[in-house]
Every structure is written in C-alpha cells, then in structure tokens.
Amino acid sequence: MTSVRARTLVALAIGALALGVAGLATAAMRSEKLGPLLCETTGGGRFVKIPGFRGEKIDRRLLNDVAYLRERFKIFVTDGYSLDPVHSRNGEHPIGLALDIVPDRRKGGTWRRIDRLAEWAEPRQDRPRAPFRWVGYDGDAGHGRGHHLHLSFSHSPTGYNDPARMIQSLKCPGSSGGKPPKSGGGGNLGPSGGVGLSRHDLEKKRPETGGIGIRGAR
C-alpha cells in the first residue's frame, strides 16, 4: 500500500507541475493592439494544427488571422509551418509564420479575392503593409495568380524551427476580433496601422524560394 500511495502522490505532483508550467506559458503571452488590424504579441509561441486544414500547422498566435482571412477572402491554406526543403530555411515557413494561399472553391473563393488580398497586403512591390514581412505574388518567381499567394508575418529574430519571441498579426491571439465586414470580394480593408517592416523586425528581408501552389491543394 505504501508503494502504491507513493506512486500516486508522485503522479499527482507531476500533474500539478505540468499544469503550473502550462499556466505560466499562457501567462507569458502578452499582446498589444497597435491599430485596427495590427497586433504585437510577445511569448506563447507554439506550432499547432490549423482547424479545417488537414495536416497544416501554424504558430498558434496566427490562428485568429487564418480564421479572419478564411471568412473574408475564402482562402485555402496549402502550407503553413513546414520544414520541407521547397521552402527557404531563412523564411517564415520553418517558424510557423507563413501561409501559402489559394482560393477555396468550395466556399466560393476566387482568384479575384486573392488578388485583392495581395494588393492590400502589399500596396507597392516589396513594400508590404504591417504585419506582413514579405508578400509573394505577381512579379515574384514561383508565386502569383494561378499558383499561390505567400504571406509572411513580421517577427523578432529567431532560429530555424524555433517559434519567435515576438510576432505581429492582424488579430490579437485569444480575441474574437469581431466578425469581418461583409463584402463581395474583400473590398477595402482600410489601414492596418502601418506600412512596411516593424522596428522590431531586425532580420534582413529574404524572399521565399518556393511554395505550395494550387496543385498542393487538398
């Protein structure tokens, strides 16, 4: 009985410790809304599954952004977090901060909607709007209408396959963010709160060298 009781107490202690660590991880995530469609979050990064996109993962702090873009632009995510060599090691796929996007035909998605998203995310070539770090579309090799739109999100420096300490997003994690305005094809989203790279985005901007386009859609 003593041995059984001891094992039970140890198991309970380990469980309590695990819950405590989980609580600390949640508490470590701090977000600040910088604009109507701009949020900066420190801590709490973890790669998780994207609901509705089988086999795809992303940094959990972008889940609200994926839901927002899916509702507004009828997107289909062909790749998120990925260590596939088709993507640049220095890009955002290996750290869960990039999306490869095509239209979700089943939900009424069209390339016109993707065009409007790309134009809003990057009003001028190589001048993305915050929170985006790099936008790959028409004019970028291996990207564009009929292939895929690539969106990378700004972040603090980090290593390969390691969640960034700080990221920028459209929506703050954990917030409902409200329902996106109804529009026939995306419409004018308005300002995000800034254009170009954040002061925290200290890494040299390196475009992606590949991506998963329409043929990768499942």
How would you explain this protein's 3D organization?
There is one protein chain. 22% of the residues lie in helices and 19% in strands. The termini are far apart. It has one domain. A hairpin with a 2-residue loop joins strand 1 (30-35) and strand 2 (38-42). The protein has helices at residues 2-27, 63-73, 111-121; strands at residues 30-35, 38-42, 47-49, 57-59, 75-79, 98-103, 132-136, 149-153, 166-169. Strands 5-6-8-7 form a four-stranded antiparallel sheet. Strands 1-2-9 form a three-stranded antiparallel sheet, with no helix packed on it. Strands 3-4 form a two-stranded antiparallel ribbon. Mean pLDDT is 80; it is low at 17-27, 176-187, 193-209 and 213-218. By secondary structure, the chain is α+β, with helices and mostly antiparallel strands. The protein is built from three helices and nine strands.
Uncertain segments are: 17-27, 176-187, 193-209, 213-218
For the record, the count of structural domains works out to 1
Please state the overall shape, judged from the principal axes of the Cα atoms: globular
Elements, N to C (H/E): HEEEEHEEHEEE
Order of adjacent strands in the largest pleated sheet: 5-6-8-7
Span between N and C termini?
55 Å
Mean pLDDT score: 80
Would you tell me the structural class of the helices and strands? alpha+beta
What value does the Rg take, in angstroms? Answer: 19 Å
Helix content: 10-25%
What's the number of helices?
Answer: 3
Largest sheet: 4 strands, antiparallel
Beta strand count: 9
Classify the beta-strand content into a percent band.
15-25%
